[in-house]
Specification:
This protein has a domain at 33-122. It has three helices and four strands, in the order αβαβββα. It has helices at 3-42, 53-61, 93-123; strands at 46-49, 67-72, 75-82, 87-91. A four-stranded antiparallel sheet has the order 1-4-3-2, with helices on both faces. Strand 3 (75-82) and strand 4 (87-91) form a beta hairpin. Helix 1 (3-42) packs across helix 3.
């Protein structure tokens, strides 16, 4: 293979790896957004759809995927904008407190699942000299 051919092959490989990495990041972001939006809904936030061009334009001006407090007529409301999906979540102080409590509960539950998985893996004794004998196994 010529030097130019190797350079092209290397460049294509790097570009492909970058595309795969970006797709993985996008999938993780989507999953995290869905999880957050489920918690917002369950904690009392109201879903508002950007069903007009004016609403979508306004939604695009808000900080995306961040819970932001805003004072409206002397009362604090919390906004979570998802411009990619045309959604805005709006909640009051009580909904925000519910969200915080549920987020902590979810984090604790996720950590318990992770610990249980680690304990199950350790119990299987997958070490090199475990129940399967010395590796490699083929």
């Amino acid at each position: 293979m010529t030097r130019a051919g190797r350079t092209i092959r290397w460049t294509l490989t790097v570009v492909l790896m970058g595309a795969v990495a970006l797709a993985g990041c996008a999938a993780m972001q989507t999953s995290q957004t869905e999880s957050t939006e489920q918690l917002l809904s369950a904690s009392g936030f109201q879903l508002k759809l950007a069903d007009t061009p004016a609403k979508q334009a306004h939604l695009n001006t808000l900080m995306p995927r961040k819970l932001v407090p805003r004072d409206r007529h002397g009362k604090v409301y919390y906004f979570y904008a998802d411009p990619a999906n045309g959604r805005l979540y709006v909640g009051d102080e009580q909904a925000y407190q519910n969200f915080q409590a549920m987020a902590v509960q979810k984090q604790i539950a996720d950590e318990r699942v992770q610990a249980a998985e680690m304990n199950a893996d350790a119990a299987m004794d997958w070490g090199m000299w475990g129940m399967w004998g010395p590796g490699p196994w083929w």
